[in-house]
Specification:
The chain is an alpha/beta fold and 331 residues long. The chain is built from 12 helices and 11 strands. Bound molecules: guanosine-5'-monophosphate (5GP) and manganese (II) ion (MN) (2 copies). Pfam families: DHH, DHHA1.
């Protein structure tokens, strides 16, 4: 058994007031991990506050439990004084937003599956062998003796499903399927998880159409990129939450190895998502640009004018693409 895992379980057993923190720009794995840990620890009678310093995309409210997640101001104004902080699915301090202020003041455990993790907790259980952080929370809950009901199993399953592209990505390995099986056997419902993606607004399709109009290709179609400006979101009556999954559409294009999607979510603040199919290591490119992630899915955020950022990032991407291609050929 992993030493850090056991230490974290030991600390959680002793803790009474726990802050469970997810990352900014939350995705399904993050929300699943925050809620699964929170519901599990609450079942053990602990006082637990779930929090994320970012707006939660509207489609996650398909799960009522998402209402449990509080924002930074709400947590601070409530006067809650945790004796332990559990951070999930976040690879570096900046990823937890203003909750960084609790670091150093309260014993902190980081539970994450990103290879780019900077090990910023008092205790760090970081293991890239897991396709999702949700699987690590399943192990923590199991070791703590949490009893699973249908809701908890479904919410826990959501993180595994979303981080593996519904069991389609290369990280959908035997452990993923066996953990999913375990959750389904405890009442988890995959069809309820898929509801979060079968709930689209017409405006999202219009936004997708704008994104498609902006598609550009490089390197004989092996690199594809597109962008949406703040104005594009506004004119389609959308926010950046409505473009979740667009980068996956870009990657799905025939012959594409690297897909890049630029999202100007605030004027002059651009989130960049990288996805690859077979061999390109996106996390290396993201780290170079100040972000992080996994080999096949990574991201970063840059400040500046959208067109300038697009040009810069595409230039860096092409350079790294050639370097990595040479390395792959030499294997
Ligand atoms: P996405 O493109 O969906 O935002 O993120 C893909 C992956 O990259 C996720 O695993 C996410 O945690 C990571 N990631 C995205 N943006 C950032 C960032 O700005 N910094 C770091 N460290 N990781 C990021
Ligand atoms: Mn995540
Ligand atoms: Mn994850």
């Amino acid at each position: 058994m992993n030493r850090d895992f056991l230490s974290i379980v030991g600390e959680l057993n002793l803790a009474k007031k726990i802050l469970v923190v997810g990352h900014i720009m939350p995705d399904g794995d993050d929300i699943s991990s925050v809620l699964s840990a929170t519901l599990g620890l609450q079942k053990l009678g602990k006082e637990v506050v779930a929090c994320i310093d970012w707006r939660i995309p509207w489609y996650f409210y398909e799960f009522d439990e998402t209402n449990l997640i509080k924002g930074y101001d709400e947590v601070v104004n409530s006067g809650f004084e945790p004796d332990f902080m559990l951070i999930v699915d976040a690879s570096s301090p900046d990823r937890i937003g203003r909750f960084q202020e609790f670091l150093g003041k309260v014993t902190t455990a980081v539970v994450d599956h990103h290879g780019t993790n900077t090990l910023f907790g008092t205790l760090n259980w970081v293991d890239t062998k897991f396709g999702s952080t949700a699987q690590m929370i399943l192990r923590i809950n199991t070791e703590l003796g949490v009893s699973y009901d249908e809701r908890l199993a479904t919410i826990n399953l959501m993180g595994i499903a979303t981080d593996t592209g519904f069991f389609r990505y290369s990280n959908a390995d035997e452990i993923v399927f066996s953990d999913a099986t375990k959750l389904v056997s405890m009442g988890g419902k995959a069809y309820l998880v898929s509801r979060i993606f079968e709930n689209k607004r017409i405006e999202q399709f219009k936004l997708l159409s704008t994104m498609v109009e902006h598609i550009c290709t490089e390197n004989d179609g092996k690199i594809v990129y597109s962008y949406l400006s703040k104005k594009d979101y506004e004119s389609n009556n959308c926010t950046e939450d409505d473009s979740g999954g667009f980068v996956g559409e870009l990657r799905s294009i025939q012959g594409v190895e690297l897909a890049i999607f630029f999202s100007e979510y605030e004027k002059n603040e651009v989130h960049i998502s990288f996805r690859s199919k077979d061999w390109f290591d996106c996390s290396k490119l993201a780290v170079l640009l100040g972000g992080g992630g996994h080999p096949r899915a990574a991201g970063c955020t840059l400040k500046g004018e959208l067109s300038v950022i697009v040009e810069q990032v595409v230039r860096e991407a092409k350079l790294m693409f050639s370097t990595q291609l040479e390395a792959v050929k030499n294997i």
